[in-house]
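Journal club side-thread
Mid-discussion, someone asked how the predicted structure for our own chain would compare to the paper's figures. Pasting it here so we can look after the session.
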Amino acid sequence: MTLLFQTRLIAALLFLVMLTSTVIYFRAASNLAETIRTNDIVAEIVQRVFDLNILTTEHLNLRSKRSLQQWEQSHASLTNILLKSAHDLDTNRLTALNRIRRDLVNIRKLFFRIIILEKRQAPTSEQLINGVKSQLNITAHEIVSEASGLRRRLVYELANEREKVNELLLWTATSLLLVMLATGFWFQRQLLRPITALKKHTEALTDGDFDARTTVRGKGEITDLSIAFNYLAETISQKIHALNVALGAAEASNKELEAFSYSVSHDLRSPLRSLDGFSKAILEDYEDKLDETGRDYLKRIRLAATRMGGLIDDLLKLSKIAKQDLQVGSVNLSDLAAEILEDLKQANPDQTIKFTITPALKASGDKKLLRIALENLLENSVKYSSTKDVAEIEMGQTIVPGRGRCFYVQDHGVGFNMAFKDKLFATFQRLHHTREFPGTGVGLSIVERIIKRHGGSIWAESEVNEGATFYFLL
């Protein structure tokens, strides 16, 4: 049974309870209203009966036309009320009403008989009048008794109807309360409890407990969600385990790299210094004993040792970049580029360098590492523009479709063939011979590693003899 079906079932149950309670309540309220209306009619009849008895006594005492008119008006009014009420009363009440109407007819007959006897003034009239008055009083008493009894029964029925309405209201409130308690229990059991458990295990998972699993059982959407959570947690646990294995391997690799760096720094430098030093000593001490070929060999040995030293320095820089912690802050790339290009102009006094830098190029990153990256890019731009009369270097920012805002360094030097762009950032890979442009082939590898450590990317576009443009995102 799905959660949606259960929710609809509870809603239907609530609707059924409300509908039943409403129908019963309106029926009881209708009965109560009918009883109240009947009670008002009977109350008016009783009051008119009492009024008629008073007017009867008053006329028999006064015997005036005014009292007779009042009696006739009261009798007619009571008769009309009884006729109208016949359509609004049930059978039991109508029987009592018919008896009152019959007695009312008798009272009229007796009343006018007394009037007629009084007008005759016969010797036997007084005795007859007294007998008729006695019958009149008995009939009037019967009317009052019948009306009062009917009124008492209606008051009792009215109290019963009101009690029924109160009981119905109590029953409705109790039923709704029970249904709400049952609904609350259902929500607690079917929704809140499993959702709370899922929340607890989700928090445990986010806190690093990758063994957290839910134990929700049953059928429905919550159970499906629980199964999906357990699957997700299991997948994350496996990924974390694989990542830990990879991190362990990376740590081992870093340790090997550190050992290699130490070996390069100490074990290889010493033989290189010896090689360079002894070659220099031979050139200085035995120069006159060597021919031109021997001296050239020794010079080649010293140049090779110097180049090897440069390679070792670049390798150490590359390894330090991988281990160095980032000190992230706001960096003004325009100021850094201006400082670097000024140093390059002084380092290359024989070369005419013209540079254009977009002002206020701001980025977020490690200032020292970004300076190293810009130094390599700008040095390459100057170096590969040395064949031009004027080295034109430009740095700015632009919008690249599909990549967004990025920075660029552009020159108009010798450029390179885009067919070999995949080798551009590979270590020790060079697209030009060292006889044309000296270098170790590590500089762009350093630049790429720095950019990637900032979560960015770098790429280049070029044409041979048309210069190159290096784009990078941070």
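Post-session note: Strands lie at 328-332, 352-357, 362-366, 390-400, 404-411, 457-463, 467-473.
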